[in-house]
Amino acid sequence: MLRLPLLSLLALLFATPALAAHSEVVSPLKRVVGSVRYGRDQAALKYFDGEAQGKLLLGPSWDKATAAQRTEFVQLFETLFAKMAFPKVRANFEHLESILYDEPKVDGDKATVDSTILILHPLKKQELKVKYLLTHEKAGWKVVDVTVLGDSTLGGIRDEQVKPILQESGMDGLLKIMRAKAKELESVQLK
Predict the structure, then answer these.
(1) Interior angle at CA 119, CA 112 and CA 185, nearest 5
(2) How far is the C-alpha of 83 from the C-alpha of 70, rounded, in Å?
(3) How many domains is the chain built from?
(4) Helices and strands, number each (H, E), in the chain
């Protein structure tokens, strides 16, 4: 009779590190979703790794950019992303039913997490397969990229917008365009 409780206790002890790791990696994802869903955009931005996003978006141009250019790029990108993407995501989340997160796949300071998002819109039920790329830094795990239905959000932005501008106008031209877009969106307030 003591064997069953002892086996259960051992199973719990061995599962605890895995559960803690799962929670540690998934927690920032839940915070981003909750923050965006309930209009706390500034809070959501704290869970993104702007530097890793900059490296992904700019590729070799990241290393060639000055520290001031990198800082400005990250700042402008976060602002533009929040003002343009968060309202669209928030609209989709109006009918959010649930999000199921798979076990994180951790490789050093990088992790991926697959999830299934269920949206129950009155006209149709939607099930989205979403994959998150995260990096680990001193402050914990942070989101770098989100892949929805096989399409990388940052990959699309990089290939369709950033690369062509960099090729034509360089880093200064890209920052000039980003500044102009930020000015255009000044009336859009982050929540």
Answers:
(1) 75
(2) 20
(3) 1
(4) 7, 6
What is each CA distance from 90 to 1, 34, 79, 129, 153, in whole angstroms?
52, 10, 16, 17, 16
Which residue range forms the structural domain that includes residue 98?
3-184
The answer to the question of residue 45 being in a domain is yes
In the prediction, which pLDDT does 20 show? Answer: 47
Residue 28 forms part of a structural domain: yes
For residue 69, give the CATH number of its domain: 3.10.450.710
Phi/psi of residue 161, nearest 5 degrees: -120, -55
Tokens 């880093």, residue? 171
* Type of residue found at 5: P
Tell me: the pLDDT tens digits for 13-32? 444 344 446 789 999 999 99
User: For residue 191, how many other CB atoms are within 10 A of its CB?
Assistant: 15
